[in-house]
Amino acid sequence: MATASNSQQSTSLALHCSNNGDNVSSPIELKFPTFPTVMDINQIREILPHRFPFLLVDRVIEYTPGVSAVAIKNVTINDNFFPGHFPDRPIMPGVLMIEAMAQAGGIAMLQPEVGGGSQDNNFFFAGIDKVRFRKPVIAGDTLVMRMTLVKFQKRFGLAKMEGKAYVGGSLVCEGEFMMVSAASS
Length: 185
Fold this sequence. Notes:
Blueprint: E1 9-18, E2 25-34, H1 41-47, E3 59-64, E4 68-74, H2 94-109, E5 123-133, E6 142-153, E7 158-167, E8 170-181
Antiparallel strand pairs: 1-2, 3-4, 4-6, 5-8, 6-7, 7-8
């Protein structure tokens, strides 16, 4: 099992700025969370078949093959969905939050340890239930997605996963995901 620490570390960045044009500078301390990388984008691309512009997982910070994964999507104004959703108040579309969470679930399920990880095997959506969007996700947010296997019927290749997504520790989206393995269909 590859694991990131549950406690968020923070990185400080000291900046100096001048006040009202005088030559006196004062330090500005910015704090932001850092997450250790367990799986980088190159390793993710070896597992998931998705590519730009539809690869919605930037890195994995925790995973247990066949059980769970915690992944990150850095949301930027450069994401191709922002110009149209919505021009005056850009927010990440809910359907893309769901897709990003499903991709994080795919990382957990498409590992060689659970019969995945080959070009011939993918997991596809079979259904989603109990989806709730709690808060909007905007440019600059870090979407942290936890996908946990609830039930797996290996004979039929069916997986039921529970997903939760957070921004800054606040729940923004949750739901239940049903997936089916392409190898079993």
